[in-house]
Amino acid sequence: MVPAFSRARSLSAPPATAPGADSAKAVRHPDPAATRTRTALVTGASSGIGAAVARLLGDEGTWDLVLSGRDPARLRAVAEEASATAFAADLTEPGADRRLADFTLAAVGGPVDLLVAGAGIGWAGQFREMPPHAIDEVFGTDVIATLRLVRLLLPGMVAAGTGRVVLVGSLAGAVGVRDEAVYSAAKAALGTFADALRYELRGTGVGVSHVVPGVVDTPFFERRGKPYRRSRPRPVPAERVAEAVRAAAERGLAEVYVPGWLRLPCRVRGAAPGLYRLLAGRFG
């Protein structure tokens, strides 16, 4: 296990209230649910979307954050910015999911309010040329590790009667992308898992959100072995996806596309699959 790095957030005392008209406000008791520190675990937080989510939540100052990622140095830097606790780990390694879950629950002192599953890798190229170990790595990271972590944290959320799981998917999982067959399959599995789990958790107080970004300006494309060279659609900043993650968590949204117009090809595929495949074969 890679040693964890932690940083405590400093809290300052509230300013004294001067006597007079404002004194009435000072004796009002705020809603504890609105002011209490919430707890969250963000995976894939050493770069890209996960790092953007960590920084966004850290800036709010109301989250007790635990961050996980593969790269200890980059993760430590993000944790410093977000005033978070970091646990560097490769979640595909045996037992890593359990160690992360145990560490997180101990660090936040109870069940987490929010799990953002942002860890993911890709591989680009023709499927018949894809090495077998790469198939295992993509599914192991994008699907198996995520499902195992959700399985470990979900009972605490259900027992508390509150919580949200946000799964970061991809448009590739909704429509399929040429030369990304396994990545598309992995993200499709994640989207279907989100739907099925949402139905199962109805009435428990725990929600499931599926955030579906298109092309995002992150190191993802470099690491998958093939840079993104298309002029359209243009990549969106990771911060825009982070905003969608926060909106999904705070508003209880089931599914969010980033950008929103990406719903259109998904609807065309559902309503007119023959037309969609014709267009995708020509332009996709």
Automatic annotation (TrEMBL):
CDD domains: SDR_c (cd05233)
UniProt keyword list: Oxidoreductase
Ketoreductase domain span: 38-219
Domain of life: Bacteria
Region described as Disordered: spans on this chain: 1-35
Molecular functions per Gene Ontology: oxidoreductase activity
Pfam families: adh_short (PF00106)
TM regions (residue ranges): none
This protein's GO CC annotations: membrane
Family matches, as InterPro entries: KR_dom, NAD(P)-bd_dom_sf, Sc_DH/Rdtase_CS, SDR_fam
Family recorded in the similarity comment: Belongs to the short-chain dehydrogenases/reductases (SDR) family.
Name assigned to this protein: Oxidoreductase
Organism: Streptomyces fumanus
